[in-house]
Amino acid sequence: MVLRAEKVRKVPQELAREPLNQRILQLKGLTVVESCTFTKSVTGTMFLEDHLLLFVLEGIYRVRFGSQEYIVRKNEMVLLQKSIMVEYEKSGEEGSDYVLDYMMFFLKEELLTEFIKMADLESSYPSVLVPVSVKAVNERLIHYINSLKPYFQETDSIKDGLIRVKLLELLFDIADADEQFLYQFLQLKRTNRKSITEVVEENITNPVSLNDLAYLSGRSLSAFKRDFQAIYNTTSPVRWIRNRRLDIAKEMLLHTSLSVTDVCFSTGFESLAHFSKVFKERFGVAPSTYKQPPQ
């Protein structure tokens, strides 16, 4: 068996390169992706740069995060927090000629903050963590999703303000329809403080930034840097993380059959040229040297 590592796509940043069966609406604070196609199975891995609200109108969309798997079926939805890496498998069902129809809403922090203030949700913040869950979409939300589809036909002429109003309408409808989802929106803004070492170790080979790690640890960026420096006795968290990834990459090159490209993507680097440059700076030789058979 040949080992191969797939490049992790950062979304929504890299979704513009998707096939023609996918259409996108974008404005500051929001990216909406609508896709309708025929497929038996498509798999991949993506890193969520923003919070993701996913609706499935036809087919099945499986999302795996760590040991958890969420299966979103026809007329269901799920909300996932940003700064995590997930595996997915999406497919149509045999009885519907393998039609796969879904819509993804990527929500930035500022838009979520605006909604929480407008809806006056802070006073309703739950005392216990609300787990991620898959919820049924009621008839009103199904009509809303279908009403949004014509907007994808005229993306150049739709004003940003109108799309923003439509999105806020969606969030209000969701909060009104399901209290559990209302609490999940609040949790996205109040991530619990976690151990720095736990967050770093869990994400060391993911394409995360310091901002991502700070968010996942429940700290501001400045607090995260301060705590990181104290724990790891370093003045540069970025350099420490990069060197740790390079150490892991070196071991993978020596002890696995993965190619240099696969090792690059498997250890959180997003550019092969950058990976090769910093690897040579650290170890004095190019990464390809470690793949050469011994003389």
Explain this structure to me?
The protein folds into two domains: 9-189, Jelly Rolls (Sandwich), CATH 2.60.120.810; 196-291, Homeodomain-like (Arc Repressor Mutant, subunit A). The longest helix is centred in the C-terminal third of the chain and has 19 residues, at 237-255. The strands form two sheets. Strands 2-3-10-5-8-11 form a six-stranded antiparallel beta sheet. A five-stranded mixed beta sheet has the order 1-4-9-6-7, with no helix packed on it. It has helices at 109-119, 139-148, 160-177, 179-189, 196-203, 210-217, 221-232, 237-255, 260-266, 272-283, and strands spanning 9-11, 22-27, 30-38, 42-48, 51-58, 60-65, 68-72, 76-80, 85-91, 99-107, 135-136. It contains ten helices and eleven strands. It has 295 residues and is α+β, with helices and mostly antiparallel strands.
Topology:
Blueprint (H helix, E strand, L loop, with lengths): L8 E3 L10 E6 L2 E9 L3 E7 L2 E8 L1 E6 L2 E5 L3 E5 L4 E7 L7 E9 L1 H11 L15 E2 L2 H10 L11 H18 L1 H11 L6 H8 L6 H8 L3 H12 L4 H19 L4 H7 L5 H12 L12
Parallel strand pairs: 1-4
Antiparallel strand pairs: 2-3, 3-10, 4-9, 5-8, 5-10, 6-7, 6-9, 8-11
